[in-house]
Amino acid sequence: MIIIGLTGSIGMGKSTVAAQFAALGVPVCSADAIVHALMRKGGAAVAEVGRLFPDVVKDGAVDRKMLGEIVFADKAKLGALEHILHPLVTAQEERFADIETRKGAKMCVLEIPLLYETGAQERCDIVVVASAPFFLQKQRVMKRPNMTEVKFRRIVAAQMPDREKRERADLVVPTGLGKAHSFRIISHLTEGLWNAK
Length: 197
Prior knowledge:
Blueprint: E1 2-7, H1 14-23, E2 28-30, H2 31-39, H3 46-52, E3 57-58, E4 61-62, H4 64-71, H5 75-103, E5 107-111, E6 126-131, H6 134-142, H7 149-158, H8 162-168, E7 171-174, H9 179-196
Parallel strand pairs: 1-5, 1-6, 2-5, 6-7
Antiparallel strand pairs: 3-4
């Protein structure tokens, strides 16, 4: 099993690239989707998050918008939240890779926004970074609901700079040149890996 780590800063097109891998038949596990599940009603992280941030739990689920406003304004609180979430996310990713291996998959993708920040590259055979120019990144992110300039700047500041991610990557996928362009790059990579097996 070849584990491909897919990362990139907010608004860089990770989700689009992940969908392209999936369209090519590569199983994809999204860290963001895991976090959503952990924080919805009945999720494994709700109780512990509620102990640290009592006001953010409403009707048995974490209000992620409220939580985001708290943690992105305070690095210590963000670190405390990550201390809860990262081990739970890692365990789910490992379970996913395990299941796909047993199913006979030759490769899978772990889509991890904070891949380098959490050291997750150590669990991956190849790291793919989705990247776009800053103006395009900002344009995409500012279209999101409830996004503000201040919030955008805080999120970017909490992530490793795009330049550094690109330097460390095995493959950079530019997402500002159209979906067909990025799809060709992903196709070439997966074809090479399938043939190598």
